[in-house]
Amino acid sequence: MPSEFTGKHVTVAGLGVSGVPAAKVLHGLGAHVTVVNDGDDERARTQAAELEALGVTVRLGDGDTLPEGTELIVTAPGWKPTKPLFTAAGQAGVPVWGDVELAWRLRGPDAAPWLAVTGTNGKTTTVQMLASILKAAGLRTAAVGNIGVSLLDAVTGDTEYDVLAVELSSYQLHWAPSLRAHSAAVLNLAPDHLDWHGSMEAYAADKGRIYEGNRVACVYNVDATDKPSTEDLVRAADVEEGCRAVGFTLGTPGPSQLGVVEGLLVDRAFVEDRQKNAQELAEVSDVNPPAPHNIANALAAAGLARAFGVSAAAVRDGLRAFTPDAHRIAHVADVDGVAYVDDSKATNTHATEASLAAYESIVWIAGGLAKGATFDELVAGAAKRLRGAVLIGADRALIREALARHAPEVPVVDLDRTDTGAMLQAVQEARRLARPGDTVLLAPACASMDMFTNYNQRGDAFAQAVRELGA
């Protein structure tokens, strides 16, 4: 049966995780597909050959020129709106969608609802917690989207789902104007990707798109102090009639909120009398690990699951069954009474602030590529918790200077090297500074690419160095 794409000339901007599935789906729907890509490396050539074998046209090394006759662009989420390709599309009146927008429009009439999550930090963990809770409730589900699993595969594949747990980045939301979730959560907001969005206001506005058209619940962070706050984004959203604002907090929850009371996660949002009643969901100890920011993630996941009608018992069972991904505040080992914790995923100051807040006495390993970040506020807030600091990476001087201003009494080891072997020396220096009861915490507050392929390799190097200490 012909589709709305049959015979349509569609340009797919970018290969990779999103572009290849988009090109295949559109080709299968009868579109004339041309893929443009900036790069022309071995991986790109391999993907191009795969698509060309299907009859897709691929143009490598030129992602800026609009192919003649283009009627629609489907872009990889990371491509900046300022690219010449999109300028030309705007001048020609050609619409631009992301792969999320395409997936949303391709859903069938009985498609599974989306429970959507965004935020500066914690998205992946929260979506994985949510999927675990939904599975504990006996629902057919999957964690998809920015988590690395194509939404297009989920909506066009043969697997039937009851509900999808969807992670969305600000990039993806920017290119998804018609998305309308069942319920959605914004976990937090802090300056990030401003070079892409142009300003904090534009970044927050793209995050806030996740609330547009929500049917049941807009879940927000009661404790957030940034402006605009996640609650501000809820207030600004145009939602369906009857959709509720549901807050989560690490404190005692008010009506229409989830929170923490005497070591318990409790719900005062999805109960019969929100003014008087509260439903116990789980114990704080059911959250792995029970760091404050991870408890907040669990509450957000629970809020979305409860909005979908999931029982309190399934929330508890799902949180107990959940195992976090590597390099997210992961306990590596105890050596001589000192805990060694890998939070290599803390690649910005907001994530590192949450990580530092989880421990009382810390030897902090930090540094890498700062991406334009400043560290004064981070260091000032954590100064009383720091036993010492070991700095690595290209932009370590920025952190050293912040420590000198706001924590001058904290001993600092500045490792003037950026080779991968620096991590072993960093761990050895941290061991020298630490005392029994302390935590040696890798929470770099920086990207890793000056020394490592990615944050995973950085975390692996830390864990290997710790194992060598134990040996």
Explain the overall architecture.
It is a single chain. The chain is an alpha/beta fold. It folds into three domains: 86 residues, 3-Layer(aba) Sandwich (Rossmann fold), CATH 3.40.50; 216 residues, UDP-N-acetylmuramoyl-L-alanine:D-glutamate ligase (3-Layer(aba) Sandwich), CATH 3.40.1190; 141 residues, Mur ligase, C-terminal domain (Protein-Tyrosine Phosphatase, Chain A), CATH 3.90.190.20. It is 35% helix and 19% strand. The protein contains 17 helices and 20 strands. A hairpin with a 2-residue loop joins strand 12 and strand 13. Helix 5 crosses helix 11 and helix 16 crosses helix 17.
Let me know the largest β-sheet. Answer: 9 strands, mixed
Q: What is the first-to-last residue Cα distance?
A: 65 Å
Query: Structural class, judged by helices and strands?
Result: alpha/beta
**Mean pLDDT across all residues, rounded?**
94
What does the radius of gyration come to?
23 Å
Helix content: 25-40%
Order of strands across the widest beta sheet? 7-8-6-9-10-11-12-13-14
Short structural summary:
With 471 residues, this protein is α/β, with parallel strands linked by helices. It folds into 3 domains: 9-94, NAD(P)-binding Rossmann-like Domain (Rossmann fold), CATH 3.40.50.720; 106-321, UDP-N-acetylmuramoyl-L-alanine:D-glutamate ligase, CATH 3.40.1190.10; 330-470, Protein-Tyrosine Phosphatase, Chain A (Alpha-Beta Complex).
What attributes characterize this protein structure?
20 strands; 19% strand; 471 residues; 35% helix; UDP-N-acetylmuramoyl-L-alanine:D-glutamate ligase; alpha/beta; Protein-Tyrosine Phosphatase, Chain A; nine-stranded mixed sheet; Rossmann fold
